[in-house]
Design goal:
mainly alpha, 6 helices
């Protein structure tokens, strides 16, 4: 009987996870906020204490549970690893040069594109990994800023 109860609980949990609707991809405005957040969390230049303080503020600001906080932390760690690689590649490209060739510029542009693609991928992974109500809260800052900018520009 206990095995049957465990099996039923497992099926319910799995069906709940499976049944969670996929989130729409982040809009350009939302990606700007996710970029800001992820770049702050993944920064090579911020102290671990300041990153932890910022992570803690996100938990309070968005009502993140432990799993959601861990998801965002893991995304930031993925971006951090790429940022380390990109910094090394950029330094190697720039080392000892007074001016850059078109190949150098192309290489640096490709590095930037890799970073932006990863940010978009991680942002959408976060939106799909958190509860729907959390995803909705995470979308708000980008939309609020975009709305304010549009209003200020008379659009």
């Amino acid at each position: 009987m206990q095995i049957l109860t465990c099996l039923c609980a497992f099926v319910l949990i799995c069906s709940g996870c499976y049944g969670q609707a996929s989130q729409a991809p982040a809009t350009a405005e939302e990606l700007q906020y996710f970029r800001f957040t992820l770049m702050n969390l993944a920064s090579l230049d911020h102290s671990p204490d300041s990153v932890k303080t910022y992570e803690d503020s996100l938990v309070k600001q968005f009502g993140l549970n432990a799993q959601e906080s861990a998801t965002i932390h893991a995304a930031a760690q993925s971006l951090n690893a790429l940022l380390k690689q990109l910094r090394q590649s950029a330094q190697a490209t720039l080392k000892g040069k007074q001016s850059l060739s078109s190949g150098d510029l192309s290489s640096l542009s490709a590095l930037s594109a890799r970073r932006e693609q990863l940010i978009a991928t991680l942002s959408n992974q976060i939106l799909n990994a958190v509860r729907p109500e959390t995803a909705a809260r995470l979308r708000v800052p980008g939309n609020v800023v975009a709305s304010s900018v549009a209003k200020a520009q008379g659009k």
